Amino acid sequence: MNSFASSPRAPGARHPLAWAVLLSLAGAAPAWAQAEASLPEVTVSSSGLQLGASEMTQPVSVLEGDELVRRREATLGETLEGEPGITGSHFGAGASRPVIRGMDGARVRVLSDGSQLQDASTVSPDHAVAAEPLLATQVEVLRGPSALAYGAGAVGGVVNVLDGKVPTAIPQKGYEGSAELRAGSAARETAGAVALTGGAGNVAVHVEAAGRDAGDYRVGSGWAGGSRVPGSFNRTDTGSVGLSWVGSRGYLGMALTRQNAKYGLPGHDHGFEGCHTHGDHLHCGSHDGHDHDDHDHGDVPVVDLRSERMDVRGELRDPFAGFAALRLRAGVTDYRHDEVEDGAVSTAFRNKAHDLRVELQHAPVAGLRGMFGVQTAQRRFSAVGEEAYVLPTLTRQWGVFVLEEYRIGNLRLEGALRHDRQTAELEDGTDRRRHGGTSASLGAVWRFAPGYAAGISLTRASRAPTAEELYARGLHMATSTYERGDAGLRAESSRNIDLSLRKTSGDTTFDVTVFRNRIRDYIYGRTLDEHDGLQLLQYAQADATFTGIEGRVRQRITPRLGVTLFGDSVRARLDGGGLLPRIAPMRAGLRLDANWQAWEGQVEWVQVARQDRVAQFETATPGYGMLNMGVAYNGRTGGGMPWQLYLKARNLTGRLAYAHTSFIKDAAPLAGRNVTLGVRVSF
Q1: Which of 279, 284, 301, 277 lies closest to 127, judged by CA?
Q2: Are strands 98-100 and 432-449 parallel, antiparallel or unpaired?
Q3: Which of the residue ranges 292-301, 355-364, 614-623 would you say has the lowest mean pLDDT?
Q4: Res 58: pLDDT
Q5: Interatomic CA distance for residues 147 and 57, integer angstroms
Q6: Which is it for strands 234-247 and 250-264: parallel, antiparallel or unpaired?
Q7: E-assigned strands of 368-472?
Q8: Which segment of the chain is annotated as a signal peptide (predicted)?
Q9: 654 φ, ψ to 5°?
């Protein structure tokens, strides 16, 4: 969950949402001494020190249990976009990556239980994240650049997807598992997942699988393109087998995972084939507009994806004197996807990568508790074919980090330090670039009254440019851009402050954050020219500032009824003048939740404002309101196994809505009315 604290000149005070949230807090807070129930505490795995969510200095959201089941969608971006401060990149139905506080791509690091997820989703928004939400057991989101233990480049935040593919314990009754089936109306989707863990003695085995078959999805009423988005289908299959040795002091295990996916790329414009540059201008035939053949889209291209990954995970408690735990995370990934047009492969993407992370948690010393570690990764990426807009590259990264905490009464202090080095080079050896930087963060959480906490986090982080930002050069028809990198780019340097206030117990609970992030030498795609919808993007650098507010407040009306107000707003602009593109508009929502005996349900209205604060060559996006609801019944079989039947609906009014964060917002609006029926059983 996220957090907030105000100051006389807090950046969020300029946002309309700030006043609404602050007024709600002022009118709703009860007396501290009143005996009230507390929210259940959730351990945040990515904290590194087994902290609860309320102990974190940085804003954090955790989805688990029934809430995760309700929120899970086909992609990670769709699953998380309801959280304050988080939206999705929305590229049809097959690809949607989380966008946190206006930042996406490499600035948002996606982890698989602490290990970097090595796919191609940071290269382009039309590339899927190789993680299956149906198989996730918990999803953690750390906002801002303060999660230095996982990489200083994640200045937007970190998303950690936890799963059970590597067993960490022997099931008490020898086996445990779950199964789920669901069907959705908008895309005629059917999906299911099953997971089973068994073991005896010191050996545990885990198997899991998930599958999804969805056609082109239906949009809201009134779209000029018809009732469904052509090429928005998504067929995905994922399977994993894991084996662990489990002892009294820890475990060591490995898992093999394979994912196959086929999904369409809406908005792919064949009319731009042959376009090239003359200096800083685009040239498409005669450049008079008549050569573009009226945007003849032809058949929608299909992504044929295959990802094979091996994970190694381990933990040893009390490994030797003076140390509490030794943890290991490693992964080897062989990722490929082909873009198929008219039955033939037009472009082939390959990504072979490995990463290793070792951390050592020491026993308390003079009141300090913490850990230190080392992390290394290598990525060999190539693209061959019509849209090979990035030259084959080899990127090597390594970093060392330390994280410490100190507690004084109700005050918890935290500090982190990290140093990173990166080498990016063309595979033909014609160019090599080295970048490095040191990052640091300081944070504090003060429990100034029962159930209340105020926090502050200060971070200075460095991010090296990606290989795509350095070496891109070519036409990218999926996003209707011609991209040009700059091998002379410097590392970014960001300075971030988060102020937070949260209340975790009582009839009124809240969690609000204001933030300001100033980034020197911010790397972005600057549009130099535009021709009939095709943009010439030059990766450039300029100082930029991101400010915003995000939060929620819940009032328990009765033991069975509650109401929540939530929302977020972010502003992103270049310090020298101008706005950054694809920044999500302000959102606000109202949710009513209820439970009675075995029933639980909620209904919410989300209002998304019109986004007319746009960058050059960018168009405004109209606002919309969306009505969502869900209901679930929890029961047990005759043998005592828990089961749940659930029904959820999104966009019940069938509103036509567009995602401003999407490159293809006009070609692929958001889904219209969608009703999902599902059943889940645990055993």
Answers
A1: 301
A2: unpaired
A3: 292-301
A4: 80
A5: 10
A6: antiparallel
A7: 368-385, 393-408, 411-426, 432-449, 452-463
A8: 1-33
A9: 65, 40
Residue corresponding to tokens 């971006």: 77
Please work out, in degrees rounded to the nearest 5, the angle formed at the alpha carbon of residue 356 by the alpha carbons of 55 and 471.
105
The continuous run of DSSP H or E covering 16 comes out as helix 16-28
Q: Token pair of 278, please? A: 């003359």
Distance of CA 491 to the CA centre of its chain: 23
Burial class (CB in 10 A: 0-12, 13-18, 19+), 534: buried
Q: What is the DSSP letter of 286?
A: T
Residue the block writes with tokens 């021709």:
531
Q: Count CB atoms within 10 A of the CB of residue 143.
A: 30
β-partners of residue 499 are 456, 514
Sheet with strand 157-162: strands edge to edge: 60-64, 138-143, 157-162, 108-112, 115-116
Instruction: List, for residues 99-125, the tens digit of each pLDDT value.
Output: 999 999 899 999 999 999 889 898 889
Lowest mean pLDDT among 447-461, 470-484, 494-508: 470-484
- Report DSSP letters for 307-346, one per residue: EEEEEEEEEEES-STTEEEEEEEEEEEEEEEEEEETTEEE
Q: Cα-flanking dihedrals φ and ψ of residue 409, to 5°?
A: 60, -120
Rounded to 5 degrees, what angle do the CA atoms 99, 622, 565 make?
60
Per residue in 121-161, pLDDT tens?
988 899 999 999 999 999 999 887 667 888 778 888 899 99
Distance CA 274, CA 484 (A): 16
Q: What tokens appear for 521 in the block?
A: 């030498």
3-state SS, one letter per residue, for 82-134: CCCCEEECCECCCECCEEECCECHHHEEEEECCEECCCCCCCCCCCCCCCCHH
pLDDT of residue 471: 94
* Cα dihedral value 3, 65, 114, 112, nearest 10: -120
CA distance 121 to 379: 13
Whether CATH 1.10.760.10 fits 11-682: no
| Separation CA 587–CA 657 (nearest Å) | 13
Rounded-to-integer distance, Cα 268 and Cα 342, Å: 13
Give 286's pLDDT tier (boundaries 50, 70, 90).
low
Roughly how many angstroms between the first and final C-alpha of the chain, as a whole number? Answer: 29
- Helix, strand, coil percent values for the chain (each to nearest 5): 10, 55, 35
Q: Tell the burial category of 52 from Cβ atoms under 10 Å away from its Cβ (0-12, 13-18, 19+).
A: middle
Q: How buried is residue 192: exposed, middle or buried, by Cβ count under 10 Å (0-12/13-18/19+)?
A: middle
In terms of Cβ atoms closer than 10 Å to its own Cβ (0-12, 13-18, 19+), residue 638 is: exposed
